[in-house]
Amino acid sequence: MGTTRIGQTISLHVKENISLYLFTIVLFTMGVCFGAVIVNSLEQQQKHDLMNYLGQFFTEFKQGTNVDPQTAFQQSFGQYIKYVGFMWILGLSIIGLPIILIMVFLKGLVVGFTVGFMINQWHWNGLLLAGASVLPQNLLVIPAVIIIGTAGVSFSLRLIRSRFIRRGEAVSPYFFRYSALVLFVVILLCGASILEAILSPLLMKPIAASLLS
């Protein structure tokens, strides 16, 4: 019953905010493209420093000194919860609306920069590495960010309408729907953390070994 209700809430939310979803997806995509462009604008010294950092990380990863699934899950899930919790709080205020949009854009920028840098430095091996290290968890993280970003913007717009256009309009039903979507996003991010802590390291290990050989 609870699962059906959450599904109905998500379906109704998407139907009511389809234009906002399209805008959020475009904004995220712009962030990805901008992040990929930034890679080409890096100075050689900056690329060298990043390569040294990644080389040290892969060396430790290959030796197994930094692979602890439980710790990795806790750190990953903790970061995701802080990110989503902050976006949820921003959605409860009018002034938080532009910050939510900035966070969606920046998330896309980080993904675009990470994937773009790996491909720029290692070409096909970089593409494989990005697929192993970035893709699994982001199959859930990206939809989660788009959902919570759109829901936050939608609720913030509801607040604006209730205060300045339709004064006295009840926002409590939308608040409960907004909070239900946040719970759904938390479930997605829990799954993303499991993938990041368990699946990604398994996929990355042979690729990291080939890069260091």
Automatic annotation (TrEMBL):
The keyword NADP does not apply. It comes from the Bacteria. Keywords: Membrane, Transmembrane, Transmembrane helix. The keyword NAD does not apply. The chain crosses the membrane at residues 20-42, 86-119, 139-160, 181-204. It holds the Pfam family SpoIIM. This is Stage II sporulation protein M. It comes from Ammoniphilus resinae. The lineage of its organism: Bacteria, Bacillati, Bacillota, Bacilli, Bacillales.
